[in-house]
Amino acid sequence: MTDSVAIVLVSGGLDSMISAALAREAGHRLFALSFDYNQRHQVELAAARRVTAALGAERHIVMPMDLRAFGGSALTADIDVPKDGVGDDIPVTYVPARNTIFLSLALGWAEASGARDIYIGVNALDYSGYPDCRPEFIEGFERLAELATKAGVEGEPFHIRAPLQNMTKADIVREGTRLGLDLGLSWSCYDPAPGSLHCGLCDSCRLRAKGFEEAGVPDPTQYAVKP
């Protein structure tokens, strides 16, 4: 156990919620970081605020930026969110270099605050095929962090923790249940329906619903269309 600070990336989604809760379980004090990157909707940021409050984060920074200036994704440009199921190709909901951008800012806060652990809720089993969710990416960024920082050069390496890396979505739901979390506080949908409902048809909704079903855990999510 430790009482050190960990920087936890909190999007408002199920995965980041459970990743942050595991950081807390490991004894870390939580400094939460979310991003208002002019994404398609603000609902997930409201969820991020709920989640960080429920987890007792000491600080929560919502960092503003405008990735719509770059575009290139259904989440940051006027491109329809796919609703035809999870495929094998990298979908248009991939935001170019998003996790690299987010981890770089988390690394800056970690060095400034003295934290040496950064938690991110990526996983490489039940996911949409994003390249920046793979173990190779996490390992590569950890090496970059050592090379790019004063702390790393002086022998104080950073650890990029991806505790959900090898879990299925069902495993993640079970872990959230074990931790006693209110999973209904989280938000997954890429394209919210009127009334703040999950659409039920985007990749993220389908993966979320599949996780609850396979875990045998009641799904607290309100869907406009049942996945």
Write the layout of secondary structure elements.
Layout: E1 5-9, H1 14-25, E2 29-36, H2 43-55, E3 59-64, H3 98-113, E4 117-119, H4 135-148, H5 150-153, E5 159-161, H6 169-178, H7 203-215
Parallel strand pairs: 1-2, 1-4, 2-3, 4-5
Helix pairs in contact: 1-2, 1-6, 6-7
Structural features, described:
With 227 residues, the chain is α/β, with parallel strands linked by helices. The chain has a single domain, classed as Rossmann fold, CATH 3.40.50. It is 36% helix and 11% strand. It has 7 helices and 5 strands. It has helices at 14-25, 43-55, 98-113, 135-148, 150-153, 169-178, 203-215, and strands spanning 5-9, 29-36, 59-64, 117-119, 159-161. A 5-stranded parallel β-sheet has the order 3-2-1-4-5, with helices on both faces. Strand 2, helix 2 (43-55) and strand 3 form a beta-alpha-beta unit. Helix 1 packs parallel to helix 2 and helix 6 packs across helix 7. The longest helix is centred in the middle third of the chain and has 16 residues, at 98-113. It is globular. It starts with a strand and ends in a 12-residue tail after the last helix. 42% of the residues are buried.
Short description:
It is built from seven helices and five strands, in the order E-H-E-H-E-H-E-H-H-E-H-H. With 227 residues, the chain is α/β, with parallel strands linked by helices.
- Order of strands across the widest beta sheet? 3-2-1-4-5
Structural class by helix and strand composition: alpha/beta
Low-pLDDT residue spans: none
Instruction: Tell me, rounded to a whole number, the average pLDDT.
Output: 94
Beta-sheet strand percentage? 5-15%
Binding site for ATP: 10-20
GO molecular function, one term: zinc ion binding
Binding site for Zn(2+): 189, 199, 202, 205
Catalytic activity: 7-carboxy-7-carbaguanine + NH4(+) + 2 ATP = 7-cyano-7-carbaguanine + 2 AMP + 2 diphosphate + 2 H(+)
